[in-house]
Amino acid sequence: MRVMSEKKKLIEVMDGPSLTRTITRIAHEIIERNRGAEDMAVIGVRTRGALLAERLVATIEEIEKISLPLGLLDITLYRDDVHTRLEQPIVQKTEIIFRVSNKVVILVDDVLFTGRTARAALDAIIDFGRPKCIQFAVLIDRGHRELPIRADYVGKNIPTSFNERVVVKMQEQDEVDGVYIEKPVEE
Amino acid sequence: MTLKRGHLLDLESLTAEEITLILDTARSFREVIDRDIKKVPTLRGITVVNLFFEPSTRTRISFELAEKRLSADTINFSKATSSVQKGESLKDTIQNIEAMRTDMVVIRHSSPGAAYFLTQCCNSKVINAGDGAHSHPTQGLLDLFTIREKYNIIKGLRVLIIGDIKHSRVARSNIWGFRKLGAQVAICGPSTLLPYEVEKMGVDVFTDLDEALEGIDVLNILRIQTERQDAGYFPTLREYTELYGINSERLKRLNVGFTIMHPGPMNRGVEITVDVAESTDSVILEQVTNGVAIRMAALYLLMANEPIPSREGVLS
Asked: A121 to chain B nearest CA, in Å?
């Protein structure tokens, strides 16, 4: 468990409008790299990654005028710390109701940190079939990787220290859009 | 939220919140068992011993599938082909198996309290898969799950359990479970098969089936345990069927919809007729499917809640 002092301060690093612009930019990058959005599917990691994925899908659909399958993934069952964590997250439902085989799968998460969530998500997707490829889109890359994993699309690189926390808020869940760094306050 | 206990022994000691957590978790596992690749790597490296001292088809296969779908390693023990035949005690049996570094035990035994006894003499996490007439928690949970999936809510439902209440661990687990989640529970059977002072469990008691059926939403029909009827609890099976058997004429008379449950194995034509068992109101096979999801949830939540004592230091 990470030990933090009681007092924390939140610093805004991305506001609502720039979060929307970032999603729009990532959508364009995805379309550019894949020359369109044919045979594409988007899978978001619950909870914030799933919300981002929904918005990303809506944006790509608007630009390309096609409809894309959207999947929601809960990676709890693929974690590598099941027997060592003190508090377990509730297992949420995974909803991938389309075939991932031969699709270009865009995996979406809010924050890329150690890379362990991404590792779990990759294993989970591959258990559903054999995608043509998987590309990884994140809103924030905060560094401190523990596995050889990188993102294909990055909203913003934010250098952080290990004891800080990156908080992504999204309207659907938190009533406001924005990205914040939570710093422990020195006493 | 976490299940704050190392063992699943009965439903009596669980809170309504813990029961709800298990049911919610099972819902996610239900999705896993409907996939093409029905397997997740969650319990990789964990070894589960299925210790069955009594015959079982459903529960045993269900547990084994649940374990395999979570990627645990499984060992199946049955009394008939073990050293229990040479007189080895339960305590020695489990301590010897555990000495080979197993992590969890699922036990079915004819003696009430056998699962609790195991928690006192080994370090493994224990799941009770039926101990005598005492308890069968995963059956109670899968019944709750099946009914909650159908009605969305348990609170306010009226549940009737029919048959041999006296010898039934399923009845006891159902009574505890449904009552904790706010359902109204009634039981009905010949007075010789109703336990002494059963009304103290907070149930309405009937000996007349047609009277008991008034206003009921869910019928849980218990098996007549022919192997336990030597004492002559009722004169003949035919008389039992006449008085307590569920058939479609009896249900039609009431003119309302029911959900039909049966924990299996069924004595077709005794406590339930074929047409009722196979009617659209029957969720009997649905119960069996959901059983795997419930057992996956129980295994996962017990295993995930704390580091295993015997493995401390080995893990990192």
From this structure: 12
| Residue A114 in domain | yes
In this model, does residue B241 exceed pLDDT 50? yes
The stretch B189-211 carries a mean pLDDT of 94
- Is A92 in Cβ contact with B28 (below 8 Å)? yes
Q: Which domain does A37 fall in, by range?
A: 8-79+91-184
- Taking contacts as CB-CB distances below 8 angstroms, the residues of chain A near B32 are 77, 94
| CATH number, residue A178 | 3.40.50.2020
The rounded percent of chain B whose pLDDT value lies above 70 is 96
Bridge-based pairing of strands A178-184 and B73-78 is unpaired
CATH T-level assignment (fold) for domain B16-135+288-308:
Rossmann fold (3.40.50)
> A90, B29: Cβ pair inside 8 Å?
no
Q: Nearest chain B residue to A79 by CA: give it.
A: B42
| DSSP class of A95 | B
Identity of the residue in B2, B27, B42 whose CB atom sits nearest the CB atom of A77: B42
- Closest residue of chain A to B70, computed from CA coordinates: A77
More confident residue, A17 or B55: A17
The string of pLDDT tens digits covering residues B102-158 is 999 999 999 999 999 999 999 999 999 999 999 999 999 999 999 999 999 999 999
Class of domain B137-287: alpha beta
CA A161 vs CA A2, A111, A184: distances in Å: 13, 14, 11
User: 0.90 cut: is pTM over it?
Assistant: no
Q: How many domains does chain A have?
A: 1
